TrEMBL record:
It holds the Pfam family Snf7. InterPro entries: Snf7_fam. Residues 1-20, 171-222 are annotated as: Disordered. The keyword Nucleus does not apply. Keywords: Endosome. GO terms for cellular component: cytoplasmic side of plasma membrane; ESCRT III complex; multivesicular body. It comes from the Eukaryota. This is Charged multivesicular body protein 4b. It comes from Papilio xuthus (Asian swallowtail butterfly).
């Protein structure tokens, strides 16, 4: 708006269409031009058929048909160029719209991050992490102190134990080479009293088995 327009209360500048509205308008224009393009292609085909039909019989009509075909082809070429420009502009607007949406999303994410970090002091965070590391060190020291064997200090000579183990292994090896089994420490007690008092049961004869089977049959019959 010019200075005089502002001074004398001229009309306010109208707000332009949004990116989405502009893209929609371009798509509608594309659809309209495509339909016109199809219409012109049909007209061109019709004029060609007219020129072929008349040919030398009606040369004037054939030439007129070819002239109209040329005009349609010129319009078709113009429409092709216009469609190319509209398509490029639409793609540019779509890219700008996508970039705007991405930037808005990133801006909202940045604001959310600022809000999340609003009450966080970086120096306090470092202090807390140092305290946590210190407490971990103390915990490890306490664990090491508890696991240390205080009642039975580790004052045994491990070299002496290894030599003793080697002697035992050599002794077992010598006995195996001589064919001598290693005696066991204890033997089970023999129940002598039970062997003395228990009498062996007499062996069952075939007659005893037959009598027992007969007794079972009689008991079932009754």
């Amino acid at each position: 708006m010019s200075f005089l327009g502002k001074l004398f209360g001229g009309k306010k500048e109208e707000k332009g269409p949004t990116t989405h509205e502009a893209i929609q308008k371009l798509r509608e224009t594309e659809e309209l031009l495509l339909k016109k393009q199809e219409f012109l292609e049909r007209k061109i085909e019709g004029e060609i058929q007219t020129a072929r039909k008349n040919g030398t019989k009606n040369k004037r009509a054939a030439i007129a048909a070819l002239k109209r075909k040329k005009r349609y082809e010129k319009q078709l070429t113009q429409i092709d160029g216009t469609l190319t420009q509209i398509e490029a502009q639409r793609e540019a607007l779509e890219g700008a719209n996508t970039n705007a949406q991405v930037l808005n999303t990133m801006k909202e994410a940045a604001n959310a991050m600022k809000l999340a970090h609003k009450d966080i002091d970086v120096d306090k965070v470092h202090d807390i992490m140092d305290d946590i590391a210190e407490q971990h060190d103390i915990s490890r020291e306490i664990t090491d102190a508890i696991s240390n064997n205080v009642a039975f200090p580790n004052d045994i000579d491990e070299d002496e134990l290894e030599r003793e183990l080697e002697e035992l292994e050599q002794e077992d090896l010598d006995k195996e080479m001589l064919g001598i089994n290693v005696p066991t420490d204890t033997l089970p007690d023999v129940p002598a009293a039970e062997l003395v008092h228990d009498k062996p049961k007499p062996a069952r004869t075939k007659k005893d088995e037959e009598d027992e089977e007969l007794a079972k049959l009689q008991s079932w019959a009754t």
